[in-house]
Automatic annotation (TrEMBL):
The protein, known as: von Willebrand factor A domain-containing protein 1
Presence of keyword Phosphoprotein: yes
Alphabetical UniProt keywords: Basement membrane, Disulfide bond, Extracellular matrix, Glycoprotein, Phosphoprotein, Repeat, Secreted, Signal
Function in brief: Promotes matrix assembly. Involved in the organization of skeletal muscles and in the formation of neuromuscular junctions.
Naturally occurring in which organism (per UniProt): Strix occidentalis caurina
One Pfam family matching this protein: fn3
Family annotation (PANTHER family): COLLAGEN ALPHA, VON WILLEBRAND FACTOR A DOMAIN-CONTAINING PROTEIN 1
Major location (coarse): secreted
Assembly mode: Homodimer or homomultimer; disulfide-linked. Interacts with HSPG2.
Subcellular location: Secreted, Extracellular space, Extracellular matrix, Basement membrane
Entries under InterPro entries matching the protein: ECM_Assembly_Org, FN3_dom, FN3_sf, Ig-like_fold, VWF_A, vWFA_dom_sf
Length: 421
């Protein structure tokens, strides 16, 4: 063990605390590791820690992430195939056991070797999953990298470069996938933890994933693979328990996102993105997305005996004359009705916000319709019983309108409420 810069070179991978796992991420991730004699033992050990820190939140398996390491040396060497270590524990030990080979920094040779292995059944690679290459370098190579790197990118491989040394910016920015500000990092070897999360997020962003998930919609985003001139994307999606209900959309190659709406709540959808290119082959990308539960009523505790139940139902009643569609509405009902109540006041407004409207009905009523509400919005609804004595008893609940509604949809019956005097 050789000390470097006054530091002890006796290092081991840190035992990290519980971390949130990242699932629904399918892909082959290849580390191109500078194992040559230009890298000190200390630097090599720090890079191994960084590699594990980068991948440990992922879920590993034949339907998730698989990873491998290729050494840059005089002759490129694969440390282990993609499909050998499919659990966090075994992969962590394999990275820990990886030994530096020394030798020359023949990065071009290693890239040509990586091109073979990234698409090789023998190396455990899969044919139709996203391919990501992370090249960790001290910035020096003894052979040309431009041609083999371009071939990798032409085959759909996303290339990230982490330079811990004095690499040529113009050369490395041309080698990395575009744009370089998202795919190229210059950082001291001791500061690698600073970029770990940013790099992991960038790797995840370079595949199909969902954002802005609600109970009835989500937005799909994906990396820019095509252009208006080079092709188009086909998107297929269906509930995983009813794949026969598959729906298909097509968008031009200029798109990198699409909003899917009118979805069922609490439902897992299988989604596939198929790039249809007239220049290069790009493998399909798949993911699974689960919509949120519908926003239901939330009660405010109440211990009284009057106005003991409030029920909200979504209702898009019959269109009014001249309307093309029914307004978003709630049907509000309450119980019991009492002779001592002279009127009921219904106060409602969107959350968050201070815009409040008031309805008032006579004491013999036990329901009303709150109309002309905004779609996909949470409302606070408060029903107040006004008694002949002047006292008031209130009951409140939250409920949410949806993007598209038709007919009665029971939300929730609430057994208690709040008191106001």
């Amino acid at each position: 063990r050789v000390p470097w810069a006054g530091r002890s070179a006796s290092l081991s991978l840190p035992l990290l605390g519980p971390q949130p796992s990242i699932s629904n991420s399918e892909g082959d991730l290849l580390f191109l590791l500078d194992s040559s004699g230009s890298v000190s033992y200390y630097e090599f050990s720090r890079v191994k820690e960084f590699m594990w820190d980068l991948v440990h939140p992922f879920t590993f398996g034949p339907k998730d992430v698989q990873t491998s390491i290729i050494h840059i040396s005089t002759t490129p060497t694969m440390e282990f195939p993609f499909d050998r270590y499919l659990s966090s524990g075994t992969l962590q030990q394999a990275i820990r056991d990886t030994q530096q080979l020394m030798g020359d920094t023949n990065t071009g040779k290693a890239l040509s070797y990586a091109k073979e292995k990234l698409f090789s059944d023998e190396a455990g690679a899969r044919p139709d999953v996203p391919k990501v290459l992370v090249w960790v370098t001290d910035g020096f190579s003894t052979d040309d990298i431009s041609e083999p790197m371009q071939l990798l990118k032409d085959m759909g491989v996303t290339v990230f470069i982490v330079s811990t040394g004095r690499g040529n910016y113009l050369e490395l920015s041309a080698a990395a996938s575009q744009p370089p500000e998202k795919h190229l990092h210059f950082v001291d070897v001791d500061d690698l933890p600073i970029i770990t999360k940013e790099l992991r997020d960038a790797i995840l962003a370079n595949r199909l994933h969902a954002v802005d998930i609600t109970s009835s919609s989500f937005r799909l985003t994906w990396p820019k693979l095509l252009s208006q001139e080079t092709g188009y994307y086909t998107l297929e999606y269906a509930p995983i328990d009813d794949l026969a209900r598959k729906r298909t959309k097509q968008v031009s190659g200029a798109h990198t996102s699409l909003l899917l709406s009118n979805l069922a709540p609490e439902t897992t959808y299988e989604v596939a993105l198929i790039p249809e290119s007239n220049v290069h082959y790009f493998p399909p990308q798949t993911t699974r997305v689960t919509t949120l539960a519908g926003k239901m009523c939330t009660i405010f505790p109440y211990s009284g005996t009057q106005l003991a139940a409030l029920s909200l139902k979504r209702w898009s009643g019959p269109p009014k004359t001249g309307d093309q569609s029914a307004p978003h509405s709630f049907h509000v009902s309450w119980a019991p009705t009492l002779d001592s109540v002279i009127s009921y006041q219904i106060l409602y407004g969107p959350l968050p916000g201070n815009s409040v409207k008031l309805l008032e009905v006579d004491g013999k009523s036990n329901s009303t319709v709150v109309e002309n509400l905004a779609p996909n919005t949470t409302y606070l609804v408060t029903v107040t019983a006004v008694y002949k004595s002047g006292k008031e008893k209130s009951l409140s609940a939250k409920a949410c309108t949806q993007e598209d509604q038709a007919g009665w949809q029971p939300l929730l019956k609430i057994p208690s409420g709040g008191t106001r005097s």
